Amino acid sequence: MSTPNRRRTPHLSPPRERPTRWECHCQEPPVLLATYDRSGRVNIKVRDRYWNVASPVHTVCPKCGAEHLLELPQDDGLFSPIP
Ligand SMILES: [Zn+2]
Q: How sure is the predictor about 18, in pLDDT bands with cuts at 50, 70 and 90?
């Protein structure tokens, strides 16, 4: 068994961090629901269009119909007056 030694050359690489996959594990491979990054931005691809929304996001898996809620922690602690 030889391991493929292909270099990971990301095309269309995001300028900052790689987004995290939000997926439903009802099957293999898991169903990708959306992607999100640390800034709390959620990217949802619908056909040929990208939806750029903010958390929390509520969606339904297109495969199994399970409901999913994505609630990202707000990363604006520097500006929040609440202790
Ligand atoms: Zn599912």
A: confident
Helix (H, G, I), strand (E, B) or coil at 77: coil
User: Residues 39-78: pLDDT tens digits?
Assistant: 888 998 888 998 999 889 999 999 999 999 999 876 655 5
Could you tell me the two tokens for 71?
């609630």
What's the total number of domains in the chain? 1
**Going by DSSP bridges, is the β-strand pair 31-36/49-54 parallel, antiparallel, or unpaired?**
unpaired
Distance from the alpha carbon of residue 10 to the mean position of ligand 1, in angstroms: 27
Contact assessment for residue 38 and residue 75, using Cβ atoms and an 8 Å cutoff = yes
> For residue 31, how far is its CA from the centre of ligand 1 (angstroms)?
6
Ligand 1 centroid distance, CA of 32 (Å): 9
Domain that includes residue 64, residue range: 20-73
